[in-house]
């Protein structure tokens, strides 16, 4: 089985990238013939801007652009999608949100039919979310950020397309001594990824 691990952080030396690499290592260490591809949106120069061409594709007046189709094909080849990202303003970074805006398009991720009938097209795709936050768990609890992000991301994006969020991990600020444990947890998630998918 194959996992697409999408990482959105401009610094290749960041903790976010280390988490993504450890996830990929875990997939490779798992029992079975599993592979992982890390898609580094910043290094690849993905353009997150939703353009007039994207709008025309959304309205089914044009085909998706080549870069969007390439990303859709990457997901089509995958048995699981993993998003690894820092929490910016209690959500995805703009780069990752723009990737979703453009790639999870009408006609591919879902279909808006006549009279508003919605067909969810990604029911086969398990999604794993790994958010890296700069605040501690108490801050997230106190302000309701866990629930707010779950509503916005799990329900508002993935449920709309029919994709099941299989795991949702928050690696939160807890001191440098816990970073090694968080990297181990990322490797463990990668190792268990396809047993979670099967469940």
Task: Give a summary of the structure in a few sentences.
The protein has 199 residues and is an alpha/beta fold.
Characterize the structure shown.
The structure is a single chain. The strands form two sheets. A five-stranded parallel beta sheet has the order 2-1-3-6-7, with helices on both faces. Strands 4-5 form a two-stranded antiparallel ribbon. The protein is globular. α1 packs across α8. The model has no long low-confidence stretch (mean pLDDT 94). It has one domain: Rossmann fold. β1, α1 and β2 (35-40) form a beta-alpha-beta unit. It has eight helices and seven strands; from the N terminus they run βαβαααβαβββααβα. The protein is of the alpha/beta class and 199 residues long. The protein has helices at residues 15-29, 41-44, 52-58, 66-76, 94-103, 137-143, 145-161, 179-198, and strands at residues 2-7, 35-40, 80-86, 110-112, 118-120, 126-132, 164-171.
């Amino acid at each position: 089985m194959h996992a697409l691990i999408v990482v959105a952080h401009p610094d290749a030396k960041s903790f976010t990238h280390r988490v993504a690499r450890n996830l990929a290592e875990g997939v490779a260490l798992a029992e079975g013939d599993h592979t992982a591809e890390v898609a580094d949106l910043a290094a690849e120069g993905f353009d997150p801007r939703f353009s007039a061409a994207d709008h025309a594709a959304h309205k089914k007046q044009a085909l998706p652009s080549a870069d969007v189709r390439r990303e859709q094909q990457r997901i089509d080849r995958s048995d699981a999608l993993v998003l690894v990202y820092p929490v910016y303003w209690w959500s995805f970074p703009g780069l990752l949100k723009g990737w979703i805006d453009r790639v999870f398009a009408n006609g591919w991720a879902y279909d808006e039919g006549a009279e508003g009938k919605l067909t969810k097209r990604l029911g086969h795709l398990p999604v794993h979310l790994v958010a890296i936050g700069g605040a501690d768990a108490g801050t997230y609890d106190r302000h309701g950020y866990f629930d707010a992000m779950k509503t916005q991301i799990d329900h508002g994006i993935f449920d709309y397309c029919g994709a099941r969020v299989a795991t949702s991990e928050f690696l939160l600020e807890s001191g440098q001594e816990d970073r090694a444990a968080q990297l181990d947890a990322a490797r463990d998630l990668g190792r268990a990824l396809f047993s979670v998918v099967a469940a």
